[in-house]
Amino acid sequence: xLNNTGKTYLPEMNKAIRQILYNAEYENPRQxxxxxxxxxxxxxxxxxxEEFYSAHKNDENTLLSEGEMNAxxxxxxxxxxxxxxxxxxxxxxxxxxxxANVFDSLGxxxxxxxxxxxxxxxxxxxxxxGGTGGSAKRMIEKIEAxxxx
Length: 149
Prior knowledge:
Serine Threonine Protein Phosphatase 5, Tetratricopeptide repeat, single chain, mainly alpha
């Protein structure tokens, strides 16, 4: 099975389709929590999105993907919706507290909002967690130079 979005989580759907084809019991694929969050954010704003996440983050009928959360955050940054992007990155940091990538992204969101202290804090955490390919270190140096001015 293929899709043209690059974001759809297909293994569960593939398994369910195979089960149906072979007349076996199947479970409905879980919904993407990120997609539901994006809809909630668009309709109700940041506070509603945060409330929705808190209420559904442990829901067994939804699937939370770090990649999808990150992609949503960057899509919001591209639309100059920095506060909304930061909201998504913060929720991703809550869901994936050991991911250097998530904290790197949160640092970037704060950087675009010119919240340099918060940006620095999150890039430092990303660096401690490792795996940012040097981007966190470069950004830390850049932010420290800005803060010294």
